[in-house]
Amino acid sequence: MSTRDVMIGLEMHITLPTKSKLFCSCPATHDAEPNTNICPICMGLPGSKPSLNKDALLKAVLIAKALGCKINEQIYFSRKVYFYPDLPKNYQITQFEVPIGYDGCLALFSSNKKIGIRRVHLEEDPASIKYTKSGNVLVDYNRSGIPLVEVVTEPHINSSLQAREFLNLLTANLQYLGILSEKGHLAMKTDVNISIRGYERVEIKNISGIYDIEKAIEYEIKRQLKKIKYGIRIERETLRFDDKRKITIPVRRKEFEEDYGYIFEPDLPVFHTNHEMVKLPELPAEKVERLSKLYNVPLAEVAELVLFSKPLTEFFENIAKELGFSAKIFSFVKNTLPSILRENKAHSDVVFKYYEELKTILSKLARGEITGNVAKNAIAELIKTGKLVEIKSVSKDLSKVRERILEYLNENEKIVEEFEKNPKVINYIIGQIMKEFKGKYSPADIHKIALEVLRKKLR
Amino acid sequence: MGAKNDVASKINEFLFMVKNGMDIENYYIELVSELERVNRKLNMFLKIRSAKECLSEIKKLGGKQLSYFPYSAKDNICTEGIETTAGSKILKGYIPPFDATVIEKMKRSGAVLLGKTNMDEFGFGTFSINSAFSIPRNPYNTELCAGGSSGGAGVATAVIEYHVAIAVSTGGSISCPAAFNGVVGLTPTYGSVSRWGLIDYANSLDKIGVMGKYTKDVEIIFNIIAGIDKRDPTTNKKKINSKAKGIRIFIPENIISGCNKTIAKSFWNAIEKLTNEYGIEYRLAELPILQHAVPAYYIIATCEASTNLARFCGMRYGMQEGSYDKYFDEYFTDARSSFFGKEAKRRIILGTFARMAGYRNKYYLKALKVRGMIIGELKNIFKRYDIIATPTMPITAPPISLAEKLSPIETYMLDMLTIPPNLAGMPHISLPIAYKDSPIGMQFIANHYAEELLFHMGKLWESIFKYKPAPIRVGVIK
After folding, report:
1. Chain A residue closest to B303 (CA)?
2. How many domains, chain A?
3. What ipTM was assigned to the predicted interfaces of this complex?
4. For A422-433, what is each residue's pLDDT tens digit?
5. Could you tell me which residues are beta bridge partners of residue B56?
6. Both A208 and A241 in a single domain?
7. Are B357 and A261 within 8 A, CB to CB?
8. A44 in contact with B at a CB cutoff of 8 Å?
9. Could you give the CA distance from residue B53 to residue A115 in angstroms, rounded to a whole number?
10. Quick one: which of A45, A405, B191, B417 has the most CB atoms within 10 Å?
11. Euclidean distance between CA atoms B252 and B416, whole angstroms
């Protein structure tokens, strides 16, 4: 079997960051006390009627456009009927025949492989259910009616790795559209359809987080291949992912009936998408291409930064505009800055709050006046205290360095011999010296002098 | 214009008395006590508010337009703080936390809500015999049906001397009881009156309308309750200028031939009277497409109803089912089995079937196409004619015992005259035209948003025909 024979399709549910819910004016916040953001509409009380939040429609059109979809000029809503305690009306208002967008695609950076997008539609989120220790089930209707966009792909994904790349790319697109914040993939729930060519399809419902999606796919492919190997039939069924044991398990069949008996939502009129008026911002694919040309940096490296974080990318673009492109700054922003932020539990937006201070630090780094380590400590301090500590530039009086290297090499004669066989040993020496001087001198200067001293010794 | 300047109106009569210092408090005390007595016999109200409740509301009301005029609301219209059941056991004890838009508007105009009127469960019926609580009776002969589904509203309008009833029609639920109880019933254009707060039967067909003793009464109320409401996005507003002269009437021959002889005779008498008095011309012709109206209606209505009723599962409001020690779906099934009536269950099953994968194209989507075609044909008729006239019901009010024996299909077919305008969302008015065992009605249908023309026609009719008051009456001022 080749990887081509694994067919994976994803259905992602993206929570839209609107002020109010999809069909009522309740706040669409996620941290309120249970059952406080509710009204007769999102509780499905008899006699209540939905009214569409136009901002949600606009955001859904943005997503569909960004995914290269064809957009329907006129859309309407449908009722999807199934009975479940988290669904106040026992039907969900969603879209069936005419979604907002269809027939789009997203190309992966690594292989340029195109993943087809079957449809993009708008729907309401059900309430959330909490299981208590006593065995009772509690329902919190705060989430009921929060707008969701469902994105359905074609089964063009062949591996867990591709699934991850696709999801990262989608997440990045949503970031650049202003739909998801950086940690937004947490707010995205995904259903995964997996089949091996020639066999039945299996659906895994409601997985959150890219890591678990990868794990679920890997487990499920193994499970299906094993069945095929031993000639056991693969049932068409619905599973869920146990995120503790990292395995898939069947769902009670009645909980997901296949026939939803869709009808048109008669309480809502037809809406116009006005999609020609909707303008897209620069999306990750365009940005990667443009910046790669502008900075003359390979696509893959630019993609690493662009896909990782919108605020950091924009921060770098601004810095590069002011200070000129610097490979040193680029690599620092791409590799070191994220870990500083993570270690200090800071949101990427702080780079704009401390923009001027950071610019000072990074320009010193670019000129070789300070080491990466000094820059790192200064930024960590800045984030913690909000103050820019005085940064000592590296000393250019190198006589002490020369003295110490000579001394060091005299103490460690063997290193000189080793250097003769393997010139990379110099890095070890530089490391030792750097450590002793605690970043007072730049690694480049130390390198230059160490090389001079070594060559002299060998002569 | 044939109608006189001092058009008959119970509202104007009442307002005149209020202006001249009638003792309103005393009036309400007597009215409520009489009403409670009569209601034991006629079952038109599911809930009558006490004189105290009515009077405390009177003190709060500021509106002058309908100063203290007593009205009722069908029990599927939500009233804040007042039990609203839609005639169903499953909503027993349900007290809505908000008022329907129509109720808000009536309150603001100064009208007083007397109570909630009896109806077929969720509006499912033609005779009000599907109410979960009691069967309203015809005030002209209590053995006979009051009509449905707004049966209680029809009886209340006939019996209470000064009254209008806010009622609801999906397929004829205003026209039918208006005809059987000898009152005027207006079903407005779909979307002209907000449905916010109406417990849905079939949302694309439901219309809130009004019954009154005279055309002028329903006209006054229509102008108060109509209008765009942002809480109901299907509301709309248009004004079609009414013409006074050269009115042309179209009479669809094939559906008149389905009426019984008494009805047909009364109808032709009325038409003759109109032509003789006003020289109005009519044309009789076949309109074959109307034979598809009843099946198309019942498919669309039950499909929508079966989804609307999904929310009633004994979980968030209304009746609850004893034991919670079950899976949720078993619990839902038990609650729905215990508290829905037979006709509600029938319509849920019919509607669910017609929208299932595999049947959806054949029934639901096809019925929607048929509706589109019927609207198209009727619109065509209105290019050449101003009014379509038919009897309101093909039979006179049957005895309750007979109505209970009819098969569902026989009952559904009795809606053949009221369904076409309801399916097309076109306004229509039912007017009393004769009195046999019980009253008989005639129905005028106009193009979308041409309510004014219907009011004009009603007034023309009322200036040449005198309505007979019901034998049982309350709230009469001597």
Report:
1. A263
2. 3
3. 0.95
4. 888 888 888 888
5. none
6. yes
7. yes
8. yes
9. 66
10. B417
11. 12
